[in-house]
């Protein structure tokens, strides 16, 4: 493991207090971040407000404005539980914890919620707890559809379906587990081809094939690892899955051992499942971090239109931790660097097309940290 030379963030950008004074929420802190992949904007949820920040080619970060409230079409003001950029970063999809069968769409040009998409009629409650783009790069494409997830099902949502109908959930494109199965699904991610990997609170990981595979049983299921899956990511090609548990990450190859042209998304792996690579911190670093580790969902770097992920980022407390993907895939579990931020990290994401810069959301700040691989390890 290597210490990133002090790890001081490059530059922070706080909220403009004058801009938000009229709607100030005492005690509110940053809770969610969505980083634009198509436009140079980041959106940070702070209570019922959304802060808008701009990042530049030279990694400068500036506050732009505040969307002063998240207000549903019924007039209720809420604090989003999840957010996802959509349709070339022109819209922000949000989940309202008080209306779990509804996805709200904010038009970012207007800074207002203009549409609500229902997962079920009013008298039938099909919750949506998580969202994913239809394909990995739909974050920067004009596709209107997306995928919803709850503890028992995944399903496609199509906003183009008339709001006069009872639901925008596509009945024929989804899979619901039987009541006896109780899969406790917890997170979802998509590949470039529109395959889906789904984690669960039981530690199980399920792979769904592309196309109508979303409506069929998973092609491959990895058994529970003993700990809940807190977050999931996947390479664009689907070759590797990155699952986050509280004290370790799982890097799972999916290529079929007897048919390397296909993955577990396309052909059941059966008893030939590759062995997951478990990424942990060295005990000396765990002690440096305070003796406890509680990882946030880890992510691969993101380069539009490519299949060459190179780095992995996660965080625990105020510590940002980055692994070399290639080295980790070869079994070098100690190939990580780390840096300390000024406060506990709420969220982190790689700047698009950049394997050296990570945007960090702290409780009262947004900043950019730089990964400097190859430094001599420093122990204190």
Question: How would you describe this protein?
Answer:
There is one protein chain. The chain has 380 residues and is mainly beta. It is built from three helices and 31 strands. It has helices at residues 17-20, 283-288, 325-329, and strands spanning 2-3, 11-12, 30-35, 41-46, 49-55, 61-67, 82-86, 91-96, 99-107, 112-118, 130-133, 146-149, 153-157, 169-176, 185-190, 196-200, 205-208, 220-222, 231-234, 240-244, 249-253, 255-256, 259-263, 277-279, 299-300, 311-316, 319-324, 336-340, 347-350, 357-362, 365-370. The strands form eight sheets. Strands 1-28-27-26-25 form a five-stranded mixed sheet. The chain has a four-stranded antiparallel sheet with strand order 2-31-30-29, with no helix packed on it. Strand 26 and strand 27 (319-324) form a beta hairpin.
In short:
This protein is mainly β. It is built from 3 helices and 31 strands.
Could you outline the blueprint of secondary structure elements for this entry?
Layout: E1 2-3, E2 11-12, H1 17-20, E3 30-35, E4 41-46, E5 49-55, E6 61-67, E7 82-86, E8 91-96, E9 99-107, E10 112-118, E11 130-133, E12 146-149, E13 153-157, E14 169-176, E15 185-190, E16 196-200, E17 205-208, E18 220-222, E19 231-234, E20 240-244, E21 249-253, E22 255-256, E23 259-263, E24 277-279, H2 283-288, E25 299-300, E26 311-316, E27 319-324, H3 325-329, E28 336-340, E29 347-350, E30 357-362, E31 365-370
Parallel strand pairs: 1-28
Antiparallel strand pairs: 2-31, 3-4, 4-5, 5-6, 7-8, 8-9, 9-10, 11-12, 12-13, 13-14, 15-16, 16-17, 17-18, 19-20, 20-21, 21-24, 22-23, 25-26, 26-27, 27-28, 29-30, 30-31
């Amino acid at each position: 493991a290597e210490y990133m030379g002090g790890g001081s963030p490059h530059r922070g950008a706080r909220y403009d207090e004058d801009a938000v004074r009229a709607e100030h929420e005492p005690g509110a802190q940053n809770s969610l971040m969505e980083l634009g992949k198509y436009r140079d904007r980041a959106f940070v949820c702070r209570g019922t407000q959304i802060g808008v920040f701009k990042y530049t080619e030279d990694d400068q970060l500036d506050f732009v404005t505040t969307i002063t409230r998240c207000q549903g079409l019924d007039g209720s003001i809420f604090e989003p539980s999840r957010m996802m950029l959509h349709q070339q970063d022109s819209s922000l999809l949000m989940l309202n914890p008080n209306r779990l069968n509804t996805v709200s769409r904010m038009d970012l040009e207007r800074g207002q919620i203009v549409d609500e998409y229902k997962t079920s009629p009013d008298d039938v409650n099909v919750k949506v707890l998580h969202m994913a783009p239809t394909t990995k790069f739909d974050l920067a494409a004009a596709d209107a559809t997306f995928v919803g997830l709850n503890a028992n099902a995944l399903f496609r949502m199509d906003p183009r379906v008339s709001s006069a109908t009872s639901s925008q959930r596509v009945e024929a494109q989804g899979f619901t587990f039987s009541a006896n199965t109780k899969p406790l699904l917890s997170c979802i991610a998509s590949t470039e081809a529109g395959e889906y990997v789904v984690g669960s609170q039981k530690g199980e990981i399920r792979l769904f094939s592309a196309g109508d595979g979303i409506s069929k049983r998973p092609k491959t299921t990895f058994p529970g690892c003993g700990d809940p899956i807190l977050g999931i990511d996947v390479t664009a090609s689907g070759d590797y899955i990155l699952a986050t548990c509280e004290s370790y990450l799982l890097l799972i190859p999916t290529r079929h051992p007897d048919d390397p042209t296909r993955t577990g998304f396309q052909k059941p792996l059966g008893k030939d499942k590759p062995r997951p690579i478990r990424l942990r911190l060295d005990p000396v670093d765990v002690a440096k971090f305070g003796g406890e580790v509680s990882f946030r969902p880890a992510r691969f770097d993101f380069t539009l239109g490519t299949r060459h992920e190179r780095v992995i980022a996660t965080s625990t407390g105020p510590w940002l931790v980055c692994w070399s993907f290639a080295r980790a895939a070869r079994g070098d579990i100690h190939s990580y660097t780390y840096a300390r931020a000024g406060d506990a990290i709420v969220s982190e994401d790689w700047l698009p097309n950049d394997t050296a810069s990570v945007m960090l959301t702290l409780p009262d700040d947004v900043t950019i940290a730089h990964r400097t691989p190859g430094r001599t390890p420093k122990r204190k």
